[in-house]
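Marked as duplicate of an earlier ticket. Keeping the data here for the record.
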Amino acid sequence: MKKPVFYTELCYVLGIAIVALGTALTAWGDLGISMVVAPAYVLHLKMSQLMPWFTFGVAEYVLQGFILLLMICILRKVKFTYFLSFLTAVYYGLVLDGGSALLALLPAPGMGARLIAYIGGDLAICAGVALVFHTYIPPEAYEMIVMELSKKLHIKLHTCKTAYDCVSLVVAVVMSLLFLGSLQGVGVGTVVCAFINGSLIGLFSKLFERIWKFEDMFDLRRKIEEGEEKNEQKI
């Protein structure tokens, strides 16, 4: 049976939006958000005390910009795709703020609703990341650094993802204690995510590949690759 086509460009648009909305949902549930975004959430809680406009979404692309600079230092090269990755972070941040604003209109959730929000949000995050891994358009810095390190170190993608998630968890805990004096945004759900999300993303990826055939709709992959080759600089 011939598989239906899922265009990679649509993977990008939907994948990033699904991840952002899943993140907003887990933050609303307040049982512990994904360890990947926990550092940005803690940064938002701290900075918004001084600058109310410093939303969760703004914190995301500020922190992702820092991660991209860190990756440049580690790999000692600058790529055109890193700039595109930052634009992805801005798109993600805008959707995240939109989803958070809508959820803020709802009444405070009870424990049952919080649990549903956590489970549904985390599954959405994993499914969205799996979609993003099937597109050629540069993903967020979180996924970009995982993909780059996986290639450089010759480590399986989901294994590298799990390791990165655990590092993010430690960073979030340290930031929360230093900046806020207590654990905020980091909870039982965060710890669970750190150990299962890498595997869940791998499972979603295999499921999607069984259902769909991934193809490009536009001739942008070649242009991005050519732009990367032309603009890549070693430092």
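See parent ticket for discussion. The CA atoms of residues 11 and 205 lie 12 Å apart.
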